[in-house]
Specification:
Blueprint lengths: L10 H12 L3 E8 L2 E2 L1 H11 L16 E6 L2 H8 L6
Parallel strand pairs: 1-3
Antiparallel strand pairs: 1-2
Helix pairs in contact: 1-2
Organism: Deinococcus multiflagellatus
Pfam families: FMN_red
Protein name: NAD(P)H-dependent oxidoreductase
C-alpha cells in the first residue's frame, strides 16, 4: 500500500501492533526458505517493529520475550530427529 503512511495505514497494522505490544511473550512458528526466515515473518517484524516519532510509531517488540519454532525442508526435518553421534 502506497501513500503518506504506506503499510501503516492498513486496518490490520494497528491490530497486529497492539497484539504484540500487549502480549506477555511471543512464540513465532516460522518457515525457513532458502536458509532464511519466510517473507511473512519478516514483513510482520518490519510492520510492527518500526519506530518513527513523526508518525507516532513505537516498536511493539521492545522489551518482549520472543522465541522461535523454525522449520525447514525435508532434509532439515530428518536431520533434526537423527541421534547425535557420540565421540
Amino acid at each position: 500500500m502506497q501513500g503518506p503512511g504506506g503499510c501503516y495505514e492498513h486496518p490490520h497494522a494497528e491490530l497486529y501492533h497492539r497484539a504484540i505490544r500487549e502480549a506477555d511473550g511471543l512464540f513465532l512458528g516460522v518457515p525457513v526458505y532458502n536458509w532464511g526466515l519466510g517473507s511473512g515473518a519478516k514483513a510482520l517484524v518490519e510492520l510492527t517493529g518500526s519506530s518513527d516519532e513523526t508518525r507516532g510509531l513505537h516498536g511493539a517488540w521492545f522489551d518482549q520475550p520472543v522465541t522461535f519454532l523454525v522449520s525447514g525442508g525435508w532434509i532439515t526435518a530428518t536431520s533434526a530427529t537423527a541421534p547425535l553421534p557420540l565421540a
